[in-house]
Amino acid sequence: MLLLAALAALNAASVHAAAAGTFDVLSMNVAGLPAILNGNGESGDKTTNTAIIGQDFAKFAYDVIHVQEDFNYHATLYVNDNHTFRTATSGGVPFGSGLNTLSNFDWIDFTRVKWATCSDASEDDCLTPKGFTFMRVSVDDGVYIDFYNLHADAGTEPGDETARAANLQQVADYIDTWSIGNAVLVFGDTNSRYTRGEDGTRVFLTQNGLTDAWVQDIEGGVYPAAGAPALVCPDGVPPDADCEVVDKVLYRGNAVISLTNTGFFYDTARFLSSDLATLTDHNPVRVEFAWSLSATLRTSDLQGGPHGTWFSDLLSLPAAPKASVLTLRGGARLDSVAITLTSGASFVHGGTGGTAVSLMLAAGEAIVSGTLCWGVFDGDTRNFYAQFTTSAGHTLAAGTMTASCATMTAPAGFGVVSFVGQDGDEMDQLGFIYAKQ
Ligand SMILES: *[C@@H]1O[C@H](CO)[C@@H](O)[C@H](O)[C@H]1NC(C)=O
């Protein structure tokens, strides 16, 4: 077993993802404010209720769970749950945001962001530093989806509406910067309804191109009109999902990953006490997803650290791209990577330091693998070295090797044509885009 594990670790970087898969997600406000602040109107004490929630998380083995209001009963939740990957709490009231993720998949680049705006017009939203979280979840090798959890400002006073719209706009702007070109899932407590026009949830549709899973699956794709009567769910277990809750799941695929919503559910009946009472004042929302990879474009794992600015060449690739010239700049570390395609399109990332080296590819020659090595500079992890190999056996390298390296190989019949990652004046984080040759 140990030998097998060691072999698996050595090969891990060149393993390719399956071409398709499925996963489910759950969004649940676990009502973990201290009982003294918020009785929540549910029966049973909060410690008992939270223990049952944790046990049900384990029992139903949801792939990725986003919780909100995971404040003062957090330890009870985690001790009763068994997911392999879980975020560390940011604290109870008044220190934490109440946002956590419990997952069967690992992730990179986890970030907590505080709202720029909050309102105490109602419901004491400024009592705790609420906001949103971001992570790139790896559902398979080189198959990253950017996951956002959030808990927007509550209430319907004018101050609440303004704060909530600002919160949702903040997430939308973050997606535009940090998820350019990427598949995205936003799920959490938006505290908003499509029937309330002032709430601002539509920004995810108009600005980010996301689709609401409830509207798509239950409402036949028709967004409830702003100003229409609220489609309020009954108390207790709703008979079906034909009512609107503030807990929403929105998503988009990208050029590599096709994402399909295969079912939307309120899982309230899975989260009941022994006397069949609900455990929180929110219906837990489950969505089933299927994903499949493009026949012509793939991406590799990302190496390095989450510094600099996110970029993706996926949005600017011509059809049937083929690499013509590869240029690297390096010295003590990897300064930049650049590829010119046979179409004339060219992509350059990083800075202008170091020494440039170039390789011209012959017709029919493709870049079939790349090794990246990373290290720590100024307290931040970044790429120090890159070496690429072509189908004709030519190699090009720049920078300085370290002890932490990974070799990533194009799937059979594919070649490296450009990049995704994060850069500044050097290559902080880097992954390859492979295209069918
Ligand atoms: C968690 O526990 C459930 C049973 O409650 C089990 O089916 C599942 O495999 C466990 N998951 C892990 C990751 O151990």
UniProtKB/TrEMBL annotation:
<keyword id="KW-0732">Signal</keyword>
<dbReference type="GO" id="GO:0046856">
    <property type="term" value="P:phosphatidylinositol dephosphorylation"/>
</dbReference>
<dbReference type="InterPro" id="IPR038772">
    <property type="entry name" value="Sph/SMPD2-like"/>
</dbReference>
<dbReference type="GO" id="GO:0005737">
    <property type="term" value="C:cytoplasm"/>
</dbReference>
<dbReference type="GO" id="GO:0016791">
    <property type="term" value="F:phosphatase activity"/>
</dbReference>
<dbReference type="InterPro" id="IPR036691">
    <property type="entry name" value="Endo/exonu/phosph_ase_sf"/>
</dbReference>
<dbReference type="InterPro" id="IPR001229">
    <property type="entry name" value="Jacalin-like_lectin_dom"/>
</dbReference>
<feature type="domain" description="Jacalin-type lectin">
    <location>
        <begin position="308"/>
        <end position="436"/>
    </location>
</feature>
<dbReference type="GO" id="GO:0004767">
    <property type="term" value="F:sphingomyelin phosphodiesterase activity"/>
</dbReference>
<dbReference type="Pfam" id="PF22669">
    <property type="entry name" value="Exo_endo_phos2"/>
</dbReference>
<protein>
    <submittedName>
        <fullName>Mannose-binding lectin</fullName>
    </submittedName>
</protein>
<dbReference type="Pfam" id="PF01419">
    <property type="entry name" value="Jacalin"/>
</dbReference>
<dbReference type="InterPro" id="IPR036404">
    <property type="entry name" value="Jacalin-like_lectin_dom_sf"/>
</dbReference>
<feature type="signal peptide">
    <location>
        <begin position="1"/>
        <end position="17"/>
    </location>
</feature>
<dbReference type="InterPro" id="IPR000300">
    <property type="entry name" value="IPPc"/>
</dbReference>
